[in-house]
Amino acid sequence: MKPKKKIRNLDFSSEKQAKQKKMRSFIIAFSSFVIILGTISVFIFMKSVDFNLNNLVQSTTVSDESTSDLTTASYALSGRVGILLVFTDDSGELISVSALDCNMDIKCISVVQLPAETSVGSDSLKAIYQKGGAAALEKPLTDISGLSFTKYIKMSQTQLKKVVSKIGDVTVRIPSDINYKGADFSLLLDAGDQNLTSDLFCKYFLYADNSGKRDAAVSLLNALMTAKNVTAQDTLFNFIMNNTDTDISVVDYSKVSSALTLFVQEKSGNVASAANEFPEVTKKNEK
Question: What interhelical angle do 198-207 and 210-224 show, nearest 10?
Answer without folding.
Answer: 150
